[in-house]
UniProtKB/TrEMBL annotation:
Residues 45-80, 81-116 form the EF-hand domain. Signal peptide: none annotated. It comes from Onychorhynchus coronatus. The keyword Metal-binding applies. One of its GO terms (cellular component) is mitochondrial inner membrane. PANTHER family: EF-HAND DOMAIN-CONTAINING PROTEIN D, EF-HAND DOMAIN-CONTAINING PROTEIN D1. GO terms for molecular function: calcium ion binding; calcium ion sensor activity. This is EFHD1 protein. It comes from the Eukaryota.
Length: 194
């Protein structure tokens, strides 16, 4: 690396970029990945939906979407890509240079799309748009309601707490129903055994 005059941090970043360009970079892996803290712009429901979508297309069940799985995904979503296009899609978000998409890298697609960091002709932008609201179908009023709800959800400081509480309430309600059914069954059973 030719970065003798740069600061230590900048020098390390430039050396890393040089190694990446030369193909000599070692993959970096985060110790722990928590999508809820790293991708705060998405609600718990959105992340769970994206995880469901990821698992649907991860046919190898290895926790990654490889080139052929991405090809199948794009075909099923109605936006087939060339082999080279698929490789470029993976390369655009592949942080660990393994040639496949982890769930974190999959979420990164939607993060970059929301931030406007994807190129207009990118297959990744097409993938991200397929999960967005279609104004031509919903109309302007539908989009207005969608964006108002989105802004309200983002401004809510306790949105995760509310979602967790709703999930807990649902589980409690299901448990109460289960107890009630068991008691009714026992009562019915005792009527037949006497």
């Amino acid at each position: 690396c030719l970065t003798a005059s740069a600061g230590e941090e900048l020098s390390a970043k430039l050396c890393r970029r040089h190694d990446i360009n030369e193909g000599a970079a070692q993959p970096r892996r985060a110790a722990v990945f928590n999508p809820y803290t790293e991708f705060k712009e998405f609600s718990r429901r959105q992340i769970k939906d994206m995880e469901r979508m990821f698992r649907l297309y991860d046919s190898g069940r290895d926790g990654y979407i490889d080139l052929m799985e991405l090809k199948l995904m794009m075909e099923k979503l109605g936006a087939p890509q060339t082999h080279l296009g698929l490789k470029n899609m993976i390369k655009e978000v592949d942080e660990d240079f393994d040639g496949k998409l982890s769930f974190r890298e999959f979420l990164l697609i939607f993060h970059k799309a929301a931030a406007g960091e994807l190129e207009e002709d990118s297959g990744l932008l097409t993938l991200a748009k397929l999960s967005e609201i279609d104004v031509s179908i919903e109309g302007v009023k539908g989009a207005k309601n969608f964006f108002e709800a989105k802004a309200q959800a983002l401004s809510s400081a306790s949105k995760f707490e509310a979602e967790i509480k709703a999930e807990q309430d649902e589980r409690k309600r299901e448990e109460e129903e289960r107890k009630h059914r068991r008691a009714a069954f026992r009562e019915l059973k005792s009527a037949f055994t006497q």
